[in-house]
Design goal:
By secondary structure, the chain is mainly α. 76% of the residues lie in helices and 0% in strands. Helix 7 crosses helix 10 and helix 12 runs antiparallel to helix 15. It is globular and about 85 Å long.
């Protein structure tokens, strides 16, 4: 019961946190330089058209009135008109978010598939050659800029070797799979569309690897540090003295307790990939929410900026809530209050 109450309290924090994010982002978006109506109509547009557009968008009203209008529209499933696409921002989010979610999912899968085994082996084999290799990988991952790595991948694998596509989610001559989840890899597998699956996989590999390097490095560093710290703990030394096999100690004690801080950062890393992937998405022309948001900032598209930021905030909050649930499994102290 205490664990349920703990999760309920965490869930109730969702609403005030999201409201504070909306207020802050709404105010900051109105402080951006430039007139969105003039940017949308062009520098040669007459003042009458600019005033009419500002009136239709509600930009002529005080900022608190604009925010109340925004909240009212949000309750009806609308986020306002986007000046970039001339559609409601909710429609744009539904279109672009699945691409970013799929990219983040593949990136975190790569980071976990490589980072967790490498971190475990590095912690157990401290000061061996595999440990030195993992530390080099970690240092490289936290130091190299994502956009630089993306450009290098394009130069090597697309321009020189010509084995990987440069941009997009799927080949130009291949129709997208039937829409089920919005994730091309899953939809193509469900519908047994093998050409679409192969093309989607080729297009997502390079941007996913570019985004996975930094999370991979952080997973390795945290897991290695946790294993090194706990393998000298008194309870581990005691079970070793009692003759418990080392493999069982590593699986039952070291990995489980060392994975708790890694678990917390995995949720945040997944959400940050979605929220902060705009540079890599721009380099690879990936039609995701990050690229859509970066274009919205360039054109001072207020409604799109607020909509993208709300989506990013909700992603972070949900990721934290999921992490809290898993905490209860890995750490009994949370289950018992």
């Amino acid at each position: 019961m205490r664990f349920r109450e703990y999760l309920l309290r965490r869930l109730l924090l969702f609403i005030p946190t999201l409201f504070c994010v909306m207020v802050l982002v709404f105010i900051l978006s109105r402080m951006l330089p430039g007139d969105p109506a003039r940017l949308a109509l062009g520098p040669d547009a007459p003042m009458s058209q600019i005033s009419a557009l500002r009136y239709s968008l509600g930009l002529d009203k005080p900022i608190h009135i604009q925010f109340l209008i925004f909240l009212e529209n949000l309750l009806h499933g609308k986020m306002g008109l986007s000046l970039l696409t001339n559609r409601d921002v909710c429609q744009d989010v539904v279109q672009f978010y699945p691409a970013s979610f799929e990219l983040a999912l593949v990136s975190m899968t790569i980071a976990m598939a490589i980072g967790i085994p490498l971190g475990i082996v590095s912690g157990i084999k401290q000061n061996k050659w595999i440990d030195h290799l993992s530390r080099v990988v970690s240092l490289f991952g936290v130091s190299v800029p994502r956009f630089w790595l993306a450009i290098i991948f394009i130069l090597v694998f697309s321009f020189y070797m010509r084995i990987m596509p440069i941009s997009g989610r799927i080949g130009s001559g291949i129709p997208p799979p039937a829409h089920i989840t919005g994730l091309y890899l899953i939809d193509s597998l469900v519908t047994l569309n093998i050409p679409a699956f192969v093309s989607s996989l080729k297009h997502i590999i390079l941007p996913a690897i570019s985004l996975s390097v930094s999370p991979l490095a952080q997973i390795v560093r945290l897991l290695r540090a946790g294993i090194i710290e706990h393998k000298r703990a008194p309870y581990v030394m005691m079970v070793k003295a009692n003759g418990m096999p080392e493999d069982l100690i590593n699986r039952k004690y070291l990995f489980k307790i060392s994975f708790i801080p890694v678990l917390s950062i995995i949720g945040l890393l997944f959400a940050s990939i979605i929220a902060m992937s705009f540079v890599v998405e721009t380099v690879f022309s990936w039609p995701g929410i990050g690229r859509y948001g970066s274009n919205a900032v360039l054109y001072a598209d207020f409604n799109a900026i607020v909509g993208v930021t709300i989506v990013a905030g909700v992603t972070f909050i949900i990721a934290n809530f999921v992490v809290d649930m898993f905490y209860g499994y890995f750490d009994p102290r949370i289950r018992y209050g």
